[in-house]
Write a structure and sequence with these properties.
Length: 321
């Protein structure tokens, strides 16, 4: 009996030895659909690689804060990570293409935008020693407010929650004070009376149970920001070729699955806000026109500041349908 056990242990020893463990850090909650998708991705990789690569997912800013994750992965402190692409704009202005208001209005548009954006993102990532695996959009960004708003003037002197440089610029354009609040702390900030409005997805409103304070949701579909999942290139290159193939393939499936999840959750979340007593409406005409003008100004500023790479996306995006 002893011999049998010993022989069995010897047989699996090489496999155990070959096992690689990766840490994947994300700033979003374990229950969020992005995180559930990442966990499924990790399981797919483990299965397809017959256990040769195990990816441990660390949600909720626990390992590194959302904004610090790219640097941590670059430095090899975690092998993989997820962040919101628009948080990368300081080093990579083109990562902000998906937060330019009123350019992408549907999931089909978001898909075209990602196809144009991806080669540029891949190039920037490569220069940092990172490799993009896949990206998945958040549901469209709507406007939440603690009170009805009729025009842009209603935002003057109020406090608007922000989560990236684009939302900060929008708050400024509206004359509101930007208040940076991580997604996982929105409920606390609202309950403490620190916010009057915010632009984010209906889903983020649901996950933060904003109905205690928020009375209005305007479905303005302002943009579709994407989360991006990436790895340290060296960690990837260190994998045996079949394991690398397993990662790439699982990433492709995760992207397809994530986009479908996002679209389903978008509608469900708006319904849930309504059931919880939030008034779901279109933006009033005056506000709508003002927001469109604001979006045009934002786009002009953005294209001017980003330069050539912005044209590489926007020219085909608008002219080669
Ligand atoms: N939720 C995240 C980013 C975009 C979204 O819909 C947030 O509010 O921080």
């Amino acid at each position: 009996m002893k011999t049998v056990v010993l022989l069995a242990a010897l047989a699996v020893a090489p496999l155990l030895h070959a096992q690689t463990q990766w840490k994947l850090a994300t700033g979003y909650r374990a229950e969020s659909f992005h995180t559930r998708n990442v966990v499924q991705f990790a399981q797919d990789v483990e299965r397809a690689s017959a256990g040769a690569l195990r990816i441990e997912v660390h949600p909720n800013n626990a390992l590194f804060k959302l904004g610090d994750i790219p640097q941590a992965v670059q430095d090899g402190k975690a092998q993989a990570g997820e962040t919101i692409m628009t948080s990368l704009v300081r080093d990579m202005p083109i990562a902000g293409a998906d937060a330019v208001p009123f350019v992408v209005r549907t999931y089909a548009d978001a898909r075209r935008m990602w196809e144009l954006q991806r080669p540029l993102i891949d190039g920037h990532f490569a220069r940092k020693g990172l490799k993009a695996l896949y990206a998945v959009p958040w549901p469209p960004q709507g406007l939440f407010s603690i009170a009805p708003v009729r025009s842009a003037a209603d935002f003057k002197g109020t406090r608007m929650r922000t989560y990236n440089p684009a939302t900060v610029r929008i708050a400024e354009m509206l004359g509101a004070a930007p208040v940076d609040v991580p997604m996982v702390e929105v409920n606390t900030a609202l309950s403490a009376g620190k916010l009057d409005s915010m632009i984010t997805s209906a889903l983020t409103g649901v996950e933060n149970q904003v109905w205690g304070q928020i009375k209005q949701y305007y479905g303005i579909n302002a943009w579709f920001p994407k989360n991006i999942v990436f790895v340290n290139q060296q960690a990837f290159d260190a994998l045996p070729p079949p394991v690398r193939a397993a990662v790439t393939q699982a990433a492709q499936s995760a992207e397809a699955r994530g986009w479908a999840m996002s679209e389903t959750i978008a509608d469900e979340s708006v319904g849930e806000l309504q059931r919880k007593g939030i008034k779901v409406e279109r933006a009033p005409a005056e506000l709508d026109a003002e927001l469109k003008r604001l979006g045009e100004r934002f786009s002009r500023e953005w294209v001017q500041s980003v330069g050539n790479e912005a044209n590489k996306i926007f020219i085909p995006y608008y002219f080669q349908r």
